[in-house]
Every structure is written in C-alpha cells, then in structure tokens.
Specification:
The protein is of the alpha/beta class. It contains 6 helices and 12 strands. It has a single domain, classed as Nucleotidyltransferase, domain 5. The longest helix is centred in the middle third of the chain and has 18 residues. This is Universal protein YeaZ.
C-alpha cells in the first residue's frame, strides 16, 4: 500500500513516499508477532530503503520510494506541496494511486505544525483516503535502542521532549526548560539525549551527550539552494538548507558546537512515521481525528472587548 508521509513539526519540511506491506523479518515466526510486541517497533533489518519491523503486533515491510527534506523554518507553507509533487513525480505515482496519508502531529510550533496537519487532512479528504497522525518525536525515537530521550526546539528557551525504551515511547511528549528536562531524565534513568533540541543547549545537556565517533557538527552543508525543485535523490533525503535560520542537526547560528557524542538521528523521519502507522493502514482501521500536539496556547491573544467610555 502506498502512503505519502510528511512532517513539519521542526524547521525541517519532510516528505516521503512509502510502500508498506505485510511480511515477517528473517527468523521471526508467527508466534513472535503477538500483542506483546505492540508499541515496540524495533527494526530487525534495514538496508537504507527497506526495513522490516514488528509494529502493533504485526510484521510489516516498509520500502521508501522517494523522499525530500528542506530545512527552513519560515517557508513550510510554500515548500510542502511542491515537495509532495516532487516525490510523486519521481516515483511516477499519481495522487489517486495513494492508499493513505501519514502526518507528524508534533509537538511543534503552532504555525509550522498547522501547515503539515491541515495539508495532510485536506489532501486525504480530496482523495477520499484515510489520514493517520503520529507523534513527530516518534519519527526519531522509534529507531533508537536503550533508554533514550528525544528533544526538539520549542522556542521560548524550551524544548519538546519524550523518553523511549528500545523504540517505544514511555513518557511524553512534554515541553519544559532545558534544566528541568535534565532533572526529569535523571529520575527516568535516560542514558542520553538526541535530536535537534539537544544541540541548542550543549552546556545544559552535556552530561547526557554520550561519546560517539563523530563530533557534533556546526551544521550540515547544503546540497543545493532552497527551492521547490532540485536534484532527484531517490529514497534518500534532500537536505537542502533554506534561506531562513534553520540548520540541520547542529548548533544554531552563533552557537558553539557541543561535545563529541553519539551520532544524532536528526529531524523526524517521515519513513519512520509511515512505519509506525503501517499496522493500522494494513488492517484498514479507521484513523483517529488529526489533533495537533501544540502542548501550549499560541502566542496570539484574544482581543478584549472595548472599554466603556463615560459620557
């Protein structure tokens, strides 16, 4: 079944075309695919474009057909639909060929998150297809082993975060100040913190940065200028940097790179989001309503009624 998956909960605008099907990983029997494995989407085999996993008690095969990712926090609205068109054109797939839509529900900033959720809902409604929502942080945490936390930028000197145990979310999502996150993670025995939010406060999160083979980069070089068109990249992501202030998996502008640490998974992967929705898609379960995870009220305030004027 063909799915279009997208996420706009972070500075990255990410889109992927994914094929999901029933299947069992090598060495996995019917007995292993029981409800006991539900919520533990541990990948047992992956070659960069195909992954086999147990999700929701079902064994599934997930194949990435094409993907794009542009990092620009100010241009989600103008980038998203052209990126969807690029992905479909590359795979020679028509919108009518799709079987469903998957979208990251955040948490994320109000405007960028709304772009993705509204676009996914409108696209699914126009096609008469179901739209499935997945927590965006799961697009990073579901592929991790051990007890690990994932953080993304919540602005206002805060981060969105959640804790995962071997790929299953066990706490969150929350929004907190960085030092409050450190205290909470110590109580939860989380071994390390990954994700774009961790790079924003390297001094605060230094104790949670596990040593790794690669130093934390200041930024990832852009492969091309931001635009709605660009080089075809197959199933791999297109990490074009935009004209805004976004950077990819590194310190923000003017910030000092953090200490060496385990390689960071980066922004939420739409392929992983599709994998997490695969069990419901294949079972043709009706999706829940798309409810964005804002976690706090928007900055805009309701206008007050005019004051009475004494005559």
């Amino acid at each position: 079944m063909l799915l279009i998956a997208l996420d706009t909960a972070t500075p990255a605008c990410s889109v992927a075309l994914v094929d999901v099907a029933h299947g069992y990983p090598p060495g996995l029997s019917d007995a292993a695919a029981t409800p006991a494995t539900a919520g533990q989407p541990a990948v047992t085999e992956a070659d960069g474009s195909e992954a086999r996993a147990v999700v929701g008690g079902q064994a599934v095969v997930v194949t990435g057909r094409a993907a794009r990712q542009v990092v620009d926090p100010r241009r989600h609205a103008e980038l998203l639909v052209p990126l969807v068109r690029e992905v479909l054109d590359e795979a020679a797939v028509r919108p009518a060929d799709l079987d469903g839509v998957v979208v990251g529900l955040g948490p994320g900033p109000f405007t960028s998150l709304r772009v993705g959720v509204v676009t996914a809902g409108a696209f699914a409604d126009a096609l008469g297809k179901p739209a499935y929502g997945i927590c965006s942080l799961d697009g990073v945490g579901a592929g991790l082993t051990g007890r690990v936390a994932v953080a993304t930028d919540a602005r206002r000197r805060e981060v969105y975060w959640a804790v995962y145990a071997d790929g299953a979310r066990v706490a969150g999502p929350f929004v907190d100040r960085p030092r409050a996150v450190v205290d909470a993670l110590r109580e939860m025995s989380a071994s390390r913190l990954v994700g774009p939010g961790a790079a924003l406060y390297p001094d605060v999160f230094a104790d949670l940065a596990g040593p790794g083979p690669h130093p934390w980069p200041a930024s990832t070089p852009a492969s091309a200028p931001a635009s709605a068109t660009g080089a075809r990249t197959g199933a791999g992501p297109d990490t074009r940097a935009g004209t805004g202030s976004g950077t990819r998996s590194g310190a923000g502008p003017g910030q000092t790179p953090g200490p060496p640490r385990t390689a960071d998974p980066g922004y939420p992967s739409p392929v992983v989001l599709a994998r997490l929705a695969a069990a419901d898609v294949l079972a043709r379960r009706p999706p829940a309503p798309l409810v964005p995870l804002y976690l706090r009220r928007p900055d805009a305030a309701e206008p007050h009624p005019p004051k009475a004027v004494a005559v």
